[in-house]
Design a protein that fits this description.
Length: 128
Amino acid sequence: MLTTDGSWIQLEADPLKPYEELDNWEKGAEAAGYYQWSTFGIKDDNPLWLEVYRRYEKPELTVPLFMVVVSARHHYEVVYAESLPAMMDLQTRWAPAIQAAAVTDLLGSLDDPRTKHGFAGLVRSALT
């Protein structure tokens, strides 16, 4: 978990572990009080994106305020942020990687001769 002072600490337990029996990740997140707050990058369109969930309910739980799902096209990892300042710090640290992945993917699609439509096709038409 990223703390408000900018350091990383290991949580003693995964806040979603008590809800594993639900067999549905999103239902487990909601049961722990987390609801989608924002997304950085375009889900399933960029090679890397962040899905941010905020805890709105369950004040009796001592789980972090934010849960961040770091997603690639076929894999994800979950990290946590203690507070809004910690979440903004995490976003600031990781936004360059998300932006670089999106730009690299876009540049790769511009070089793909199979791409004839959309922005990539328009740029290719203008350059040839």
